[in-house]
Amino acid sequence: MNKTFSTLRINQDRFRSHFEALAKIGGTAEGGVHRPALSEAHLEARRWLKKQIAQAHLEIKIDGAGNHHALLGCGPQDGTGLLLGSHLDSVPNGGRFDGPLGVLAALEVLQVIKEQGLSLKVNLEAVDFTDEEDCFVSYMGSRALTGDLKRHDLQNPSKSRDLFQQALSRAGLTESGILAAARDPKTVAGYLELHIEQGNRLIEQRKDIGIVTTIVGIRSRWLKFLGRADHAGTTPVNRRRDAAQGAAAFTLAVRDLVMKDFPDSVVNVGNMEFAPAAFNVVPEAVKVALQFRADENNKLDRMEKALLEEAGRAAQRFGLRWEMAPLESIAPVDMNPKVQEAIIRACENLNLSYVMLSSGAGHDAQSMASIGPAGMIFVPSAGGFSHSPREFTEWQDCCNGANVLLHAALTLAH
Amino acid sequence: MNKTFSTLRINQDRFRSHFEALAKIGGTAEGGVHRPALSEAHLEARRWLKKQIAQAHLEIKIDGAGNHHALLGCGPQDGTGLLLGSHLDSVPNGGRFDGPLGVLAALEVLQVIKEQGLSLKVNLEAVDFTDEEDCFVSYMGSRALTGDLKRHDLQNPSKSRDLFQQALSRAGLTESGILAAARDPKTVAGYLELHIEQGNRLIEQRKDIGIVTTIVGIRSRWLKFLGRADHAGTTPVNRRRDAAQGAAAFTLAVRDLVMKDFPDSVVNVGNMEFAPAAFNVVPEAVKVALQFRADENNKLDRMEKALLEEAGRAAQRFGLRWEMAPLESIAPVDMNPKVQEAIIRACENLNLSYVMLSSGAGHDAQSMASIGPAGMIFVPSAGGFSHSPREFTEWQDCCNGANVLLHAALTLAH
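YS: structure for the whole thing
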């Protein structure tokens, strides 16, 4: 990086005013945001983003998957771009940092570089991906862009197909348009994403920046416990085949299992669906929404085996049958070493402390890694809270992260 | 009972053809029926019943709560009636015996007595009560008739108020009409109900008939466990406040508690509602649908105290808060001794073996007991299955029960 570059910084005031304006869209009483993908609030956030891109005199491109790109033609006219970005959708009742920070920092980087009139070896793009949070199809936008998304994925959304179709129609998207959004990998010079850590390692280790080495793999499964519907008043408790008991025993057991045998990995029972779901009927069936994560494929295989053994044990204990339906299996993904190196240099140039770490959360960077060198920059999450209105990052940390994004992008693009 | 009376029997062929025709309405592939109160299938069953009443040349009366009465003026013209009945609505995906058996046996009794042209001391009514199974408001029909139902009950249905309003409108009912359905207790000479046992005591004790002494009390509660929504990938399992863990520990604990300390009583966790209900978010809140039953009020009080202590323990173990919202508290109700005596005489006259027992299920008889002498006749349930398509009673047992109903009614009305 030459001397001019090394003194460049983002415009903190503009960055902050963007951040605060965006946090109001879908803002909740608790101080978070509720912007599930393709909801009215999410679409309003995207209309707001389009307006900012236009006001920054950047070109806008919206692809078939609804991904919003701001384009800065600072490189050759071959259309190849280094992508910087994240997402504007949130989990239900989520926080204001997860996603927006990376999108707005990317926009800020483009604005700073445009203001300097710099000529680089590649063009720059700030991108806002669709449905990172798996409201319907996880990483739908980035997977559509990389060509990884298949018709089967669209036909099996996390919510009902009806709700998905309504959402697509609200957003002006179509399944065929999404599948046609795949981009020639030759036009992608790489991908950089700034994000909050969503954990407490940076705070505990008193580091300014986390440089991601690996994004953990994620497997989502529906586990169904099947018993017998009986009258809840006349069937003695010990003669029931009560699916609720199996689901409950499983939920407790998997927590113990993971704490004991997979202490650096995680498991979650995020939902249950009862049938027939009446106060006065013994539950015949309980569906359990199971998700688990680990940083290596063979560890995921071992976890899955052990978790299913717990399902079998819980079912047997209460005279139940059980079934498993796989939903998603996302493999762990390593970040590109050269991109990691560029981020290290940015930290050093900016006098920021850093640590190499894995990401326990999935990100669009793992899709993008399949078509080009990808990397991620983490900033501290106060208290480690995430997917919650309590999510919080000090503003100085947000600016540090945006400056690291700026410098790492300049290094990669120069 | 005089000699003529003692040789009277129901018409088994007509009774059976009624039973089988009715079981087809809302019939399911598994051989049960799906006729939730005020659903299209339930309303179709009631249209069918009206037609049978008309074909039997009995008078029909539908009160403001939608209760269908067939009237036989075999007594004085003062309008006082001995009511025989049950209900045509079912739990979701229920059986074909629970409710219809009692309504059709009552209709059969009226037809037999009409054919004989008997003069009795009171008139007879066969009644089909609305929403016995608590689709919206439990025992809505019988509680409306006895004047026990209040506006507050209608404003807090088990399902959403919108769904309830839609159902009322579908059935041509109104809240004010329901509240105006209360009947002068002086016009009710008593109430008799034939029902399947819904348990396995008659089968185990090889008895033909059960004579109910007490109907157990029922309490329904929503228990809410409150934790913290966190990212399910980045929050270590042991740092969560996971509401699912509290709900699971509670579900297992209450089963053990009741088996150990209340072995003749029951508890059920019939449903759970998670929030935010996503694979990738640690559950912030889980609502648990709890119901428990016992044959004495002070036993219900002790159970409730012990169950809530388990909720406190489960919450404390996982760093959660908890809340309880009472839904319904129905006190245990004793059946009238003179009615029990009439049923005993009927069994003896018919050479049927019998046993006195409590009812673990609630019935309209417990509402009716508040305005007049009430009693219940049970027939065996094969396998003890109930609220399930597996519900089954031998046809001979159904006919035995209908004949006991006939003879007990004649004794009470003579």
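YS: worth flagging: The longest helix of chain B spans residues 297-317.
IM: good catch. Also Chain B touches chain A through 68 residues (CB under 8 Å).
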